[in-house]
Amino acid sequence: MNKRRLRLGTVPYLPNAFIEDKPLGEGNARYILPPKPNVSAMISGTELWLVVLFCEIANCTTEIMIASEWGNVLDNGTKFGLLGAPAKREVDITLAGLYTWYSSFQHLAFSAVHSRSGCTCIVAKPRIIANWRTPFLSFTGSLWGAVLAAFVAGAFAVLVMSRSRQRILQLGEATRYTFSDSVLIMIGFFMEQGVPMPNELIASCLLFATLMFAGFMIGSSYNGGLASTMIVPQYEKSINTVHDLAETRTTWVGVTVNWLFSIQLAYQPDMLTLLTTFREWEEGEISRRAHERTVAIIVERMEYGHVAHPQMELDAMKGRKMMAEDIYWESVVGMCSKTWPARARFDRLVLDLKAFGILAHWELIGVARYLSFKSQQILRYSRKTSGDEFTPLRMANITGALLILLAGLSLSLVVFVTELAWYWCGPRIKRCVAACLIKCSVRFIRKRARPTGREV
């Protein structure tokens, strides 16, 4: 190319694109936007190395334009940002983690695919559920509702059976069950305890046999679930899939709105929900708020096993885990003007490098240089557990039972004191209320009987 210019557009995006200032003569490119006449640029990164190698082979001079945003090319012809630069012929090619977006294909040409990328999120790791909730973890919410319905229906059936039995057998009032008796009988069945079961009538035998079997099954199921929840640590529900991310309406954030370009035309309900819950944050804000548990942070799963992520503290990263699946995946390309004459030669170079495994090596070098192997290790094993799933029983495991006991004792004490107060003060209160009612009635009658003073 006889030292002809190759105008490259990019935005800083690690490890794909990295630009730093160097003294004149020490860089491998020169700035065209923003103009910096006194320094040269050193461009590197997994994608920009393609241009560096291409210019070394084709004998061209690299000029770099750094855009402030990824931008877009709209249907009305508006062009701005990195994607608008080749459409306006300001640059020849742009590279910075760009995907095969349909909206861009209508105005720009794509280079050969040089990698595959998956868009996913790192979400907050689930916390261990508080020990006081242990007695309630054996059943789900809907199952607890079914158990409560069965309990109420059984207590009502026992109450009706008792009154029917008294009427049929002409028994005394002492043999009739009260409401509290019915409740205690059902508690005995569910707790697998012995309860009195009258057997004079076949209907009562069938009823008590049914209740005994149901209570045995419910009690056994509860005991089995309680044993597992007390030994195996229970965690909060975590976000593992795209459906979980959409169902919880968790805010997922990225450094640019271009993350949505790949799902803008999607019609699936989950994708439509994700379009409304996405927020664009600066990288500094993502780093500051990385500890927030209500936020999912976008990361890029690269082709050869590494992860591109925003800059954040390792402590914040340790409190997160990667989702089990990608939100979507895309092919990574370069975007150029449709009339760029060197595109075919550049594509051949990309395909050769991919076939020889050079791009896999570049990805490893880029991650080691611009990210860190420590962060890669944290994210790679973020879904792994410690392996020590079973824990011995401790005092904390019966916290829920102790709280239930304390609540029951407190409630019974309050009711007992109320009953005593009513026993001692009840008659006096009744007399006072009756006297007040009598006085009010007398005053009302006298007022109605008082003459108006008018003559007819």
General description of the model:
- This is Ionotropic glutamate receptor C-terminal domain-containing protein.
- Belongs to the glutamate-gated ion channel (TC 1.A.10.1) family.
- By secondary structure, this protein is an alpha/beta fold.
- Among the domains are: 138-231; 391-433.
- Helix content is 45%, strand content 18%.
- It has 14 helices and 16 strands.
- The chain has helices at 48-58, 81-87, 102-105, 141-169, 179-190, 202-231, 242-247, 269-277, 283-288, 314-318, 343-356, 358-370, 373-380, 399-449, and strands at 4-10, 18-23, 30-33, 39-44, 60-66, 72-73, 79-80, 93-99, 109-110, 115-124, 251-254, 278-280, 295-301, 307-308, 320-322, 328-336.
- Strands 1, 3, 5, 8, 9, 10, 11, 12, 13, 14, 15 and 16 form a twelve-stranded mixed β-sheet that branches. Strands 2-4 form a two-stranded antiparallel sheet.
- Helix 4 (141-169) packs across helix 5 (179-190).
- The protein is elongated.
- The termini are far apart.
- The mean pLDDT is 89.
List keywords for this structure.
single chain, two-stranded antiparallel sheet, twelve-stranded mixed sheet, alpha/beta, 45% helix, 456 residues
Topology:
Layout: E1 4-10, E2 18-23, E3 30-33, E4 39-44, H1 48-58, E5 60-66, E6 72-73, E7 79-80, H2 81-87, E8 93-99, H3 102-105, E9 109-110, E10 115-124, H4 141-169, H5 179-190, H6 202-231, H7 242-247, E11 251-254, H8 269-277, E12 278-280, H9 283-288, E13 295-301, E14 307-308, H10 314-318, E15 320-322, E16 328-336, H11 343-356, H12 358-370, H13 373-380, H14 399-449
Helix pairs in contact: 4-5, 4-6, 5-6
